[in-house]
Design brief:
about 700 residues; mainly alpha; two-stranded antiparallel sheet; 26 helices; about 70% helix
Amino acid sequence: MENNLLPWFVVLAPLIGFFINAFMGGNFIPRTKAVHHGAEASHDTHGHGAHTHSAPTSGEWLSGGIATALVLLSFLLSIVLYFQLGTISGEEKRIFSSAFSWIPTIGLPFRFVVDPLSSLMMLVITGVGSLIHLYSIGYMAGNKGFTRYFAYLNLFVFFMLLLVMGSNLIVLFVGWEGVGLASYLLIGFDYDRVAATNAGKKAFIVNRIGDAALLVALFIIYRYFGSFEYFGINNMAGVLTEQGRRVAIENGYLFTSDYLTPMLLLLAAAGKSAQIPLYVWLPDAMEGPTPVSALIHAATMVTGGIYLICRLHPIFLASPEAMSVVAVVGLTTAFLAAVIALTQTDIKKVLAYSTVSQLGYMFLACGVGAFGAAMFHVFTHAFFKALLFLGSGSVIHAMNGEQDMRKMGDLSKKLRITCATMWIGTLAIAGIPPLAGFFSKDEILANAYADASMGGLGDSNHLLFWFGWVVAGLTAFYMTRLMWKTFYGKPRYDNETARHIHESPPVMWIPLVALAIPSVFVGWLGGMKLLHIESAFEKFLEPNIHWRKADTLLSIPENAEIFIVSLSVIASIAGIAYAWLRYRNAKNGELLTPEKKVSGSGSLWDLSYNKFYVDEFYDAAIVRPGRKFANWLWRTADARMVDGTVNGVSGIIASLSRMLAGWQSGYARNYALTMLLGVVIVVIGCLFGLRMVGR
């Protein structure tokens, strides 16, 4: 289907919201009436005062309402496009927008494509995004940057839609860079706090590493494929055929196409989706407002890397070596982040490392060729992770900005809706049936097991499955720990805080309930082979992505699948049970005898609590040497060579100017004498020259 205008409206609606709030938002909320107290801006541990819990003003409702309504409009139009896709028969289910010539020299149009893969991402981005916008109206009420916040939030959604809806890699790259910019603005939203601005800069700089890799990969892709387009006559997927590979061998491109290109794409995806070695920006991104964390971690930016790999999966399938690296990177990241999450005391940091770990699961799925399973986990994770982040925001809102779980406890009776919905999110991410996370996580583990059975990564590849199984148990443990330390046990807050604790207003708890419902039910879209229920999700994505590597990966026997499902559920229940036993009577609750813990003993607890000192290592190995090198360049190359050359030349010119200035006496007779001498010299020179020529 060609020249459809609806995709343009989907993309432009949040951009219109950005312009309205950016240029007219000041008219909605007079500056003199704004009060600076948003939850993160008032974090007690940062010394920013108390949270006043004010209700949104009429101007804030107008500003936030416009931003929310326009994202909701994009969601409704995305639903219309989804149903239009269903009316297209055959395998090529694609809706193209109208286009304009963007880069005529290479015949590159600026247009959008809606296919099953992009449609799925559009529904997640706009659906979950609109709920986060609605929640933000209550959460950010009274903040002096209210309209600026919603302008940034709309801009973020706009760029993310560009990323997933572009019909070619260059439009994707514009969205890719745009979400990097928007994340920088949102993470560093409270620009008067050094921690927030540093976190924004860290996210921006770390992502530039992956972005540089993507840019190089684009050049190689154009060299090899001769096109940036996903579909059409000269498309990328079509070249990855036997004929295309023979041409590649003849032209000497096989190395770059089969190894270098997917590795560069992996580095780009690792930056955006926070995988080793570029995951360090994501936990620090918690310095932004909590709804921003929900948007970045659940529905938008961090899913960009998974989307890139799945969109370009033919390139990865051409390189078994690259596929192996993707799987190992994903599983290593999942395990490391889960271990770090065990000991964190900041409620948002636990969820941040949980996101990194779950993204590792998605990379594991891609590495074993289960691209459809990876996208299924992207889909289910968006709901329960957004729910958990917004639930943590509700807790922080009630606790006057406090984020340290050691200062919480006994909140279940005062925050009943928040507690109930967060338990749903916790059980979903822990993989307890029949909630959503159970289906998507077990699909990944089953594919890891099946790939090993078929010799995907060698005889020892069952380690991928077993480490993934361990991560499932760790996930259940640290999430139950979070719930127990937050909502149960003796209260660990002061009387002043206790007087102000209350459930969040409807504008905040309604999105929690709305996200809890799909966190329970959407897993069934993935089907259940043991119950012979067909996967609607698999059928929907089939025109874009094979659920498995159909050429090498066979379905595992039913008894093996029963074994995998049983093991997974056992790991989850064991993690929950151990956390309950460990923390039900804990007074301040840390992993392993917290009351006897002495920091600095070099134990595993210390390594986990200090995040394995990865940030310190990067600081010592890269940041400080880089700063010293930059200072050396400044002192040597800039100050001495560049400035020295410039100053030397300017000094010579100044000296000549002073010497010539002495000739400017102001007397006409001196100027006449000078002219006469000049004429005499010229005449004598001419005569001398003629004489030499005559000889």
